[in-house]
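Example record

One chain of 319 residues, shown exactly as stored in the release files.
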Amino acid sequence: MYNDVKLEKGLYNLSEKSFTSALEELDPSSAYCGTPMEKLDAFERQLKRFNIRIAGSDCDRVEKFFSSTETAVLFPEFVTRCIRKGFDETVLSSICAAKTVSGSSQYLGCVIDDSAEYSTSAEATTLPTATVKESTTATVLSKYGRLINASYEAVRQQRLDVFGVMLRSIGVKLAVSVVKKAVSVLAADADSVTATALTYNALAELYGSFDYFNMNTIIASPSSASKIVAMDQLSDTSADANGKMILPFGSELVKTSAVSNNTIIGIDRNFALEFITSSNLVMETDKLIDRQLDQITVSITCGFRKITADAVKVLKITA
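Predicted structure tokens for this chain:
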């Protein structure tokens, strides 16, 4: 049971296992089906075990994690989860069709040659061919990271919910730097339409340039996004229950500074982009456990590859 799990630093260093995965092996969530704790994962059960409250009016302070050697082991996972939550809340979730974990810093994916026309074929004739083969060009993964400099004395009295928000903001900004690479990959060599101004008709032309796929996502700069939502044709449009702006032709409007003001990218997010990473977020866990919070780094090594070229179109504003 969760009360009997021995927490130690080594749980962070098991090959190809996250801290939570290691905890789950020691304390499987399946054992709690039908109990009040069935909705908690192994890490959350440890927070309950030691009565560490990370949210709410009676939220604890950072120093609560360091009340014993065992509770200190939980602190790096708390930090990682907060940063990861911020990272995952960004536009990456709206533009990536698939995520691949690579064992190296270079990734050779598959490419498909499917240019033959889809049409009827006479009996006893050879069908048009779609060929899948390994790419001849490797996707090189890059490292993105941030140095966090905060002494233990500076944060020990900070409420965990407030400190968690600070960490989430780091995750958001880290993801924005990653999104810039994603946008450059999508825009590279994409079919395009041009217009002298950003108008509703220009957006409709971009929508109409899609053939086999649907333009279910539009990626625009903050300036362009504000012009789009101000168009007369969108006066009755509002955000959905999740805060996403859905345009009349069914496209989610994604706003990011990674796109230039004279470019609008339309994609079918179910087919356009592959997110490749060689690791999840990497933290210096030993330092966190030992309260050496100064000079802590968080990083991720990742890259992007366009999966289906026809699932990406670009509107270029020439004025």
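Notes: The longest strand covers residues 296-306.
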